Amino acid sequence: MANLPTPAWKTALAYAMDKRGTPYVWGGASKSGYDCSGLMLRAYEAAGIDLPRTARQQYGAFSKKIAWNDLKPGDLAFFSNLGHVGMISKPGHMVHAPRSGDVVKEERLSEWRRSAFVGAVRPDPSGVRRWAEILDKRRAPAPNMPTATL
User: Which residues cross the membrane (predicted)?
Assistant: First the structure.
């Protein structure tokens, strides 16, 4: 059997799990520290998938949403009005950068997390490309409009 490439989610998950113990740093996206979305950004970047920077943008980058009961390893799960993101590591667990004063860790998905759950996405390159196209259109200058002259 031919050597198949490692699925992106496995590469991303291995990256995130390797960062356990790294300090939480607000706005961080490097080995010196991560915030929640910075960790997801770098994990999927290691897998060849470019994500937007913030949790809200990461959620919006994909049109297909994943329900709580359908979560799989590698999925990005969003909580607290899109204020937090973690990656599903195994059934009932996620790896994430929780808060200031804490470190990247794997934790069990508690009932509190379930009550704060907004939705999840399963990152794929095509979803991010569509998001990038939408952002490019939003950033484009408005077309010149004809003006009436007297």
Answer: none
Distances (CA, A) of 54 to 18, 39, 84, 148: 21, 10, 9, 43
Average the pLDDT over 130-141 and give the result: 70
For 94, counting Cβ atoms within 10 Å of its Cβ (0-12 exposed, 13-18 middle, 19+ buried), the class is buried
SS3 78: strand
Is 93 assigned a catalytic role? no
Q: Which of 19, 34, 40, 96 is catalytic?
A: 96
Segment 96-110, tens digit of pLDDT: 999 999 999 999 999
Between CA 73 and CA 9 the distance in angstroms is 7
Burial class (CB in 10 A: 0-12, 13-18, 19+), 44: buried
- Find the catalytic residue in 13, 16, 36, 85: 36
pLDDT at residue 142 is higher than 90: no
**Alpha-carbon distance 85 to 128, whole Å?**
17
Report angle CA 47, 50, 52 to the nearest 5 degrees: 135
Mean pLDDT, residues 57-72 taken together: 94
